[in-house]
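[INFO] parsing input record for Integral membrane protein
[DEBUG] input buffer:
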Amino acid sequence: MPPLNLTNASTLKDLETVFGFLIQSVLALAGVVFFIMLIAGGFKFITSGGDPKKVAEAQGVLTWAVGGLVFIAIAYLILRLIAVFTGVNSILTFNIPG
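[DEBUG] output buffer:
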């Protein structure tokens, strides 16, 4: 049996990179979903033909798209406010001590 080579072994510190990538990916995906919902809502609105039911459905899609983006922005701003008021800047980063 060959000796174990642990020079490339993963550690708990590698989770910092994984969570950082995960957060960036989720935020990017949220932006893409917002853009797609905005396009879909606009298309529904344009093709509604004045039908009140279809116009209301299109407005609902647009409202939920903007509401989701506002929710993400407010969540980030709350975290920033907590970081500013408490002086703990590591609230927006994932760090494993050690």
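[INFO] The CA atoms of residues 24 and 30 lie 10 Å apart.
[INFO] shutting down worker
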